[in-house]
Amino acid sequence: MRLSSPIYKLKRQARLLARNDGIKLHAALDQIAVKEGFKSWSQLASKYAKETPAMEILDQMRSGDLVLIGARPGHGKTLLGLELSALAETIDRSGYVFTLDFNENDVWDRFEKLGFEKNRLARPVIVDTSDDISADYIIECLNDAPHDALIVVDYLQLLDQRRTNPALNEQVQALKKFATERQAIVVVISQIDRTFELSSSGMPSIKDIRLPNPVDLSIFDKRCFLKDGEVQMEMAAID
Q1: Which is more confident, 50 or 54?
Q2: Distances (CA, A) of 125 to 118, 145, 172
Q3: How far is residue 179's CA from residue 22's CA, in Å, rounded to a whole number?
Q4: Which residue from 20, 27, 147, 204 lies 20 to 30 Å from 64 (Cα-Cα)?
Q5: Which CATH class is domain 54-235?
């Protein structure tokens, strides 16, 4: 399923259309849906929910996985991570978001753009925006949580910004150990080095991850890269 724009941008178009033409939002949404080739917005939304790349990615995840999501700014890596946490309930997991980059209002605003309302999730997503977030902090917070967690960490390069936190590689190792022992899924969002934009590469890869401090990236079981609406999933090589 290919839309002319991400679904949250289509919703924004509908809101503008409703305001400019003086029509109800549901009518504006239906007009946008018709332009996308659907009979109504409800049909578009239903098909999107079944075919969104997030669902395909979720289907490839397994208990104990440590997953990396990488993209340059503006290519949807944070939205994908949030969508995974909201859709965790579809694979009988509870979603958690730990972010050092956004405040809670920002996070829920992005959930709303994706079509997820805070009070309408069967399993509410737990959002934590503490300045103390690190691997140790995440593990301590989830000590008493159910073992069916899907955890999104936003983002890799900020985990060791405090000098009192362990080295970044040590934290990644700790998150992998936690995922394995608790049969959880841990998704870590990552920046891509800006030099990537100067290269001729079509899609980022593991070599393009920005690493201000050393990290053994081979520990990630799966890697997901985004660019211009395209998503590419990679499995780690097995020795």
Answers
A1: 54
A2: 8, 13, 23
A3: 51
A4: 204
A5: alpha beta
